Amino acid sequence: MAAEIRLFPCLTDNFGYLIHDPATKATASIDAPEAAPILRALEREGWTLTDILITHHHHDHVGGVAELKQKFGCRVVAPHDKSTKIADVDLRAAQGDVVKVGSLLARVLETPGHTLDHISYVFDTEKAVFAADTLFSIGCGRVFEGTYPMMWDSLLKLRSLPDDFDLYCGHEYTASNVKFALTIEPDNAALKARAEQVTKLRAEGRPTIPVKLGNEKQANVFLRADEPSVAASVRMKGAGAAEVFGELRERKNKS
Ligand SMILES: [Zn+2]
Hints:
- The chain has nine helices and 14 strands.
- By secondary structure, the chain is of the alpha/beta class.
- Helix 4 crosses helix 9.
- The structure holds zinc ion.
- Residues 56, 58, 61, 114, 133 line the site of zinc ion.
């Protein structure tokens, strides 16, 4: 029996995610922006929460942990980095660790930059990656705690995953990301196709997630900082990819 994944809105523009293992009935919430929508989703499905897999310490990713932990006594898995305080943690996960959700296996990638503690969860069998605020569709997270080279390395880790993997990110920011990306790559055919798709999905009130990683590799300018054409479009011909990435991120911050 294949794993089941549900996504639903939380807070203003966060995604809530549940991944369920029919074989063992285990269910994990990826982050917990707030408890109420997660509780409603669990009730809708008739699932019981067994695990919370936290990606990073920001409040809009952990705000619901305490209430859920109290209600279900579920296991809380959090990043290895203890420099920031996350309450109720049962297990710390670092690069290469494999976290079990029932019989499902989540491989941990350290993806710092947005925060120093940020990790992503890769479910290889399910071909799904939960990248939270490191990689968005057609965008990436702001670099709050790390450096641009650090964030670029994290994006490269995610980019090295297979094209047919589904990207599940932390926020519904795709429309605004598309608008910015078109200022850098107005002639990118994959980006233009994604732009049309996103306009349609948003008009229908539907989420733009998940999206295939292969699509993102072609259309997401932040994954393309090592393309000579992208360097040229920001007048940085010959510059290193991390530098070009930094320039793209700065421009997005100001957009
Ligand atoms: Zn964040």
